[in-house]
Amino acid sequence: MVIDVPFIWTAFVEILKALPLTLLITIGPLLGGLLIGIAVAAVRINSVKIITPIANVYVSFFRGTPAILHIMVIYLGFPLFINKLSRYYEWGFNANSIPIVVFVLIALSFTAGAYMSEIIRSGLLAVEKGQIEAAYSVGMNRFQSMKRIVFPQAFALSLPNLCNIFIGFLHTSSIAFIVSQKELNGAANIVASNNLKFLEAYIAAALIYWMLTMLIEGITALLERKLTVYNRGGVV
Amino acid sequence: MGKAFDIELIFTSIPQLLSYLHITIWILVASLVIGSTLGLFIALPRIYKVPVLSQIAAVYISFMRGTPILIQLFLVFYGIPAFLQLIHIDVSRMAPLVFVIITYSLSTAASFSEMMRGAINSVDKGQTEAAYSIGMTGTQTFTRIVLPQALVVAFPNFGNLVIGSLKDTSLAFTIGVMDMMGRGDTIIAATAHAVEVYIALAIIYYFVAIILEKFFVKSEQKLQRHDQPVHV
Asked: B104 to each of A67, A174, B51, B99, how far by Cα in Å?
């Protein structure tokens, strides 16, 4: 047999050590993207002059180009920019001292922001307008009606999309190996070339990603059942 | 090395990169055609609840959607030669492009079958009953009544799938395919300027994505023209 089955387990254990970095590169950009996404969605929903077209171009550009290019442009472009500023203002520091993972996090946050803004926008728009009117009618102010009525419903409605983007970014984090990050895929590459057992290492990595994906799906399904209790319908 | 950032290089490299666009498009079209055909056949056992086959299809879809395309690319690239070696077929000199098209087809098939399953299930059951009532067979009902309606339902998702696949093609260079990204690497090696080349690549991908999006929006309007509300 060409495949060394026991080695898959060895590789599995070895690659699993890279899980924390993968989770960092997955969750970090999603949190960063959430902030960007809220800001962008707020701008687009309220159609602020001048900023809205910029926000539109940002969203469409980042959704229309591959994430690997975002990583490459920021990883290579930011240092040029920072070094120029640093020389100009004599900060006395060099972009080389910044860990690469920071650039990956910044780049993927911008990517996530574009997708997040669409999720947030569609979530907010999906909440019926009558809900806000009802909240006003019982004397809530704008902030209260947003916080107590609109957001909880928008969040529940967005859950499937949030699950998809979570899984999407778990998979996108595998690109970070291109800038020599030792996340799951990077670790699989190292295990593979050190032992010259490529197929086994990638099978192990695939199994880890697969299990993580199923875990995320399971948690989302549970959460969705809890959050949409209000929506069960029926008589009782 | 000259200037740190050479804005002119963005524009001079665009035509050079564009001359490799056809490879990207070729990967996209080939994997979409093969993947959608395969995807439809994977969706059928799940829709008709064929025992065994439907479970195999479910595991296949879960695996393909649960792992990154980059890992799938490596699995196919190293896995197919290893398995073919068992039956003494040497494919070590096969073009990497073939492995890329196989991977992207397999991946598209999984997404496409899920899409079609949802779309086919969304077609009203009464349609099938009506078709049976006028004496159509199961195959006729499926190909003449259900499938055309399901395709219209699936169309917007199909647009997203195509643009997603377009972006995925940017990873083909990792196994040595000379597409736009691969060509970009050679320009970087020759000029020692990387950011400019990657910006040029981003511009090209963006334009292709915009064109595809426009095309899908236009086609969708055409497909749904019979659904328009009646103006009195």
From this structure: 17, 16, 27, 9
Q: What is the mean pLDDT of each run of 10 residues along chain B (232 residues)?
A: 77 93 95 95 91 94 96 94 85 87 96 93 90 92 90 90 94 92 92 92 96 93 74 62
- Give the Cβ contact number of residue B107 at 10 Å: 24
* Of the partner residues A73, A198, A214, the one whose CB lies closest to the CB of residue B202: A73
Report the predicted TM-score, pTM, of the whole model to 2 decimal places: 0.90
Residue type, B45: P
* Residue environment code for B15-45, b if the CB has 16+ CB neighbours within 10 A, otherwise e: ebbeebbebbeebbebbbebbbebbbebbbb
Q: Which of B125, B122, B102, B124 is nearest to B114 (CA)?
A: B122
Judge: B71–A205 Cβ closer than 8 Å, yes or no: yes
With H, G, I as helix, E, B as strand and everything else as coil, classify residue B91.
Answer: coil
CA A33/CA A108 separation, integer angstroms:
8
pLDDT tens-place string over residues A1-59? 578 889 999 999 999 999 999 999 999 999 999 999 999 999 998 888 899 999 999 99
Q: Which of B74, B90, B99, B115 to mutate to test the interface with A (most CBs of A within 10 A)?
A: B74
CA A47 from centre of chain: 25
Q: Which residues of A touch B64 (CB under 8 A)?
A: none
User: How far apart, in Å, are the Cα atoms of B69 and each of A167, A175, B228?
Assistant: 12, 10, 38
- Taking any CB pair shorter than 8 Å as contact, residues of chain A touching chain B are 1-3, 60-61, 63-70, 72-73, 76-77, 80, 83-84, 167, 170-175, 177-178, 185, 188, 198-199, 202-203, 205-206, 209-210, 213-214
Sequence-separated (6 or more) residues with CB below 8 Å from residue A165: A30, A112, A115, A116, A119
Probe site for chain B from A2, A3, A26, A72 (most B CB atoms < 10 A): A72
